[in-house]
Design brief:
By secondary structure, the chain is of the alpha/beta class. It is built from 15 helices and 19 strands. The protein folds into two domains: 134 residues, Enolase-like, domain 1, CATH 3.30.390.10; 278 residues, TIM Barrel. The mean pLDDT is 94.
Length: 471
């Protein structure tokens, strides 16, 4: 295959409620779409990838304004796309991934940001491959044709492990929603929240609403190394959970890089376990996500005590998972695994899933896992692509928050609504004329996602985006 050209466009979106994570507060975020033209031996096909441009996630440098961060995100996508064009003939996704891993991106910016540019190109190319083969992502992957004999040697400071991408069909027709509780999300109807002026659909707002209306059984709770404030927040959350009566609730805790050492987090964890009103929480935590800042997350001094903690409750990386080898390095340090996000790379998620499978089979001294996480992605392209990836990995639950912080798919042109509801009526429902995510007893239906190319069946209408770069 040969990548001939590309175009990058953006369109605005406004959150209906503020989303606080770590030190960031998201109220508006551009939605970006990449269109790539790929030449195959039998056809020329356009493939698409899309995602939001969030503040202070890929790059947490406080001195850079959001406008500068947006320009950085545009630049890393453009650089990765141009490199793919210049490369000429490529022998599949494996060779493309290798090319991208060798590209250092913008030297002055974090590796996670550069990896985002690579992931957008990779996703668009995979979409083109699925379209050209007229098959779904799961079928293409599990046939072996997506990667053929491609393998890599993972390197954790000289400890080498040869790995091939996951290619088993563990896809599910349904997947549970792990609902995000941000640092300032309303917990009950009595919590005042100012809705965006663009709010046009009637959707659950508070945690209590989501538990009762959507039947949520999994929660991802943001914590911020705020000591007493975090504990009181968790106590209030558990009051709402108990009141809603949702049996068998499971949790993950997201530290969002707010702790300076594992010992600092462990002190907080031990205090949580000592409180009777938090027993239901601490006894049902599935994983603790990225408690340490990314620049120290793999350091020996900062991770002292990690192996002991991971034997009690799995601790995983997220923002630290910025390159091909990071999950393997994290496991060698004492973590239990990592997260899967399409924005961090499809090939990397597939390599990490196979790595976790092999570590589980080795029956080592702790639980190993990969979780499905979100980047506040909304439909149609980014959400479905991420769900297609989560499904083939065999995940039983996945964090979803785009539907909570956005007013359905109201950011898209109205002329797309009917097509969305016809092509993906299992995943979306009509709420006051706007397609919104359909959550039934805490679950999403993935039938059309699993069958429709790289997750989406409709024309994503690049012409409705404002073109910002091309090459």
């Amino acid at each position: 295959m040969r990548i001939r050209s590309w175009r990058l466009g953006t369109r605005p979106s406004v959150t209906r409620i503020p989303f606080r994570y770590g030190t960031a507060c998201l109220t508006e975020c551009p939605q970006a779409m990449l269109e790539i033209t790929v030449e195959f031996s039998n056809a020329v096909v356009r493939g698409y990838a899309a995602d939001c441009f969030p503040p202070l996630w890929f790059d947490k440098s406080p001195e850079r304004t959001f406008t500068q961060q947006i320009e950085d995100m545009i630049e890393v996508i453009a650089q990765s796309a141009n490199n793919a064009v210049v490369a000429g003939e490529l022998n599949g996704v494996g060779e493309l991934a290798t090319l991208q891993w060798e590209d250092g991106g913008i030297d002055t910016r974090p590796p996670l940001l550069n990896n985002f540019g690579h992931s957008m190109v990779e996703r668009a190319v995979i979409d083109a491959l699925c379209r050209n083969a007229k098959t779904s992502f799961r079928e293409f992957l599990c046939s072996g044709k997506l990667y053929n004999e491609f393998s890599v040697v993972l390197d954790a400071w000289g400890v080498l492990k040869t790995m091939r991408p996951w290619r088993q069909d563990h896809s599910n027709d349904r997947i549970a929603v792990r609902h995000t509780v941000g640092l300032s999300d309303p917990l009950t109807a009595g919590d005042g929240v100012a809705l965006s002026s663009d709010e046009c659909v009637e959707l659950p707002i508070s945690l209590d609403d989501h538990l009762r209306v959507n039947g949520i059984r999994y929660l991802k709770i943001k914590i911020g190394n705020r000591g007493k404030a975090d504990i009181e927040r968790l106590q209030e959350i558990m009051k709402v959970v108990t009141s809603a009566g949702n049996a068998g609730m499971k949790f993950t805790l997201d530290g969002n890089e707010q702790y300076s050492s594992i010992s600092e987090f462990t002190e907080f964890w031990e205090e949580l376990k000592s409180l009777c009103e938090l027993k239901q929480l601490t006894q049902n935590v599935l994983a603790i996500e990225q408690p340490l800042r990314r620049n120290i997350a793999l350091n020996d001094s900062a991770t002292l005590g990690l192996r002991r903690l991971s034997r009690e409750v799995p601790v995983i990386i997220d923002e630290s998972d910025s390159g091909r080898d990071e999950c393997w390095k994290a496991i060698c340090v004492g973590y239990s695994g990592t997260s899967s996000k399409a924005c961090k790379g499809v090939t990397k998620s597939l390599l990490n899933r196979q790595l976790i499978e092999e570590m589980q089979q080795a029956n080592e001294d702790r639980e190993y896992l990969i979780t499905g996480e979100d980047l506040c992605c909304v439909g149609v392209v980014p959400l479905q692509t991420d769900l297609a990836l989560s499904s083939v990995l065999g995940l039983s639950h996945v964090e979803r928050n785009g539907h909570h912080y956005h007013a359905g798919l109201s950011y898209l042109p109205e002329e797309m609504y009917d097509d969305i509801l016809v092509s993906h009526g299992d995943l979306y429902r009509n709420v006051n004329g706007v397609p919104a995510l359909r959550i039934d007893h805490g679950m999403l239906n993935l039938t059309s996602v699993n069958e429709g190319g790289f997750g989406f069946r409709i024309n994503p209408r690049f012409d409705t985006y404002h073109s910002v770069r091309e090459g």
